[in-house]
Structures are given as C-alpha cells and as structure tokens.
Amino acid sequence: MATEALTGGFSDAPRQSARAFRAALEAMARPGSTYVLQEMGDAPAPVSRAAATLLLVLCDPETPLHLAGDYDTEALRGWVTFHTGAPLLSADKAMFVLGSWRALDLSALSLGTAEYPDRSATVIVDGAFNGVDVALRGPGIKDVTQSRLPEVAVFQDNAAQFPLGLDFYFTSGAKLSALPRSTKVTLGGDV
C-alpha cells in the first residue's frame, strides 16, 4: 500500500470526527449556509480537504462509495480503503458519490423507493462553489436564502421528486454547504 494512503486522517479521531460530523449535519439542516471546517482530513489530489473530511465522517464498511471521473484514482482508492473501509462500487450501487459536477452522472444514482426513500445516494460535489445565483426555500430556511449552484433545472427536478431524490454536499477547500432533496430552488432573482 502506498504511503499516501496512510496519511491524511484525523490526529485526534474521536473529537475531530465528532466536530466534523456535527458540521455536516448542520450544513444539511441549514441549506445554503456555508461552513468552514476546522477539523479536516486530507486526501490525495484532486480532493478538497472538506470533501476528504466528509468521506472520513460519512463513509464506513457499510456505505458503498463511487468515485467519479478524475476522482477515481489509485491513490484515492487506497486512501478511502485505509481510512474508511468503504466498498468502492459503481454509481448505481453507491450510497455516497464523490466527483466534480462535470463528472457526475446523476441519472445513474439511486433516488430511493417509495417504501425506502432513505436509500438514495448522497452526492459530494467537489470544487462546486461556482455557478448561478439561486434562491432556496424549504425546511431549515427562514423565508428564503441565497446561494450558488452549478445549475438550476437539475435541482428543481430533484426537489419535485420528494420524498425521493438526491441529497447534495458542495465542497471547496475548507468550505462546505448542503442541499437536501426537500429544498426548492429558483433563479436568484425570483425571490
């Protein structure tokens, strides 16, 4: 195993992972809010530290992961295996998916079922704090909040399928935000 796979975990795993997991929960509970992670892992390129941290706190041997596009590297596969034990599977079987927006094939991901909507995939979109201005409404948002997303129609279609659909985390550097499937998205000027 390459030494690169052995580096980048938490130095104080119980405390750091608890704080990082709390930040991940807060981000999903408050869509559109941006969090700067203080407790961070560090994975091989091209993964941001925020995305590496999400992998450390969300993935384990029971949560299959798919690495999309440029993220599917031998170094990252080794890092994920060593630090999380998460099985690396195809997109249609994954509970978590990591990649850049351009590399993701959202149509291949599980949206859950009527009986088990929680069996949908959670998507970690790395390097994703660019895009169009949007207005967000829904649970966890008082009235409306502004954010930026890679595009609009995909997220509108996703929300229309609720309670089915995908949940999203967006990461870049140390920054983290989230968009659950229950959030309604409109163009930024449509508040």
UniProtKB/TrEMBL annotation:
GO biological process, alphabetically ordered: organic phosphonate metabolic process
InterPro entries per record: PhnH-like_sp (IPR038058), Phosphonate_metab_PhnH (IPR008772)
Keywords on record: Lyase
Annotated Gene3D superfamilies: Bacterial phosphonate metabolism protein PhnH
SUPFAM superfamilies given in the database record: PhnH-like
GO molecular function: lyase activity
UniProt source species: Pseudooceanicola spongiae
Taxon lineage: Bacteria, Pseudomonadati, Pseudomonadota, Alphaproteobacteria, Rhodobacterales
Full protein name: Phosphonate C-P lyase system protein PhnH
